[in-house]
Amino acid sequence: MAATRSTMLELGTKAPPIQLPIVTGGDFDLYRYTQHSKGIVVLFICNHCPYVHHINETLVSVANTYINKGIPFIAISSNDATKYPEDSPEKMIDVVRKQRYPFPYLYDESQAIAKAYRAACTPDFYFFDKQLSLYYRGQFDSSRPGNEIEVTGRDLTTAIDGYLNQEKAPEIQVPSIGCSIKWKAGNEPEYFLY
Fold first, then answer.
1. What does DSSP assign to residue 43?
2. In a domain, 187, yes or no
């Protein structure tokens, strides 16, 4: 279980466009989806990652809370499903049903969206404001598999609450840590090869 840190995309970055299939049916367009929202959380996850398994239950609870406050969530898997068949779109549908994800789960087969967001690990969190400007990126909270810290989502929820209260973005933002995105051979982005 090698740990990879998120790259910490620059705050203020405009959300790159996302047009991807939703594994349970239909297509997703970020700009259309967020027309009437107060912001959006974009997260990169996958089915098999123990770091994602560790937060799943609390993630669903947090997402439900903020969806009801006008902050939708979307999840994206960009892993190479040929080498990691557990991360295939068919298995993603199973995860949506089992975990009761209240958000669209998208499959980034070309890995172009992961590259556009400079995503590096699962889970990797990005919170964009109403204008789709990056307000927060980094960890869900300090809990990791085996470190005995309770999973709360505190880092992400503190940032969203601050935004909803018209505060400036948190000065301290800690990178997420998780499994590396499983890049297709020869498709590894330059920022990942450090």
1. E
2. no
Q: Let me know: does 111 contact 188? Beta carbons within 8 Å.
A: no
pLDDT along the chain (194 residues), means of 10: 85 98 97 94 97 98 98 98 96 97 98 97 98 98 96 98 97 96 91 62
> How many residues are present in the chain?
194
Nearest to 44 by CA among 29, 26, 27, 59: 59
0.90 exceeded by pTM: yes
Q: List the structure tokens of 107.
A: 């499959």
49: containing domain: 4-180
Q: Which of 6, 96, 107 is nearest to 51 (CA)?
A: 6
150 Cβ contact list (under 8 Å, min separation 6): 143
Element (H, E) at 142: none
CATH number for the domain harbouring residue 12: 3.40.30.10
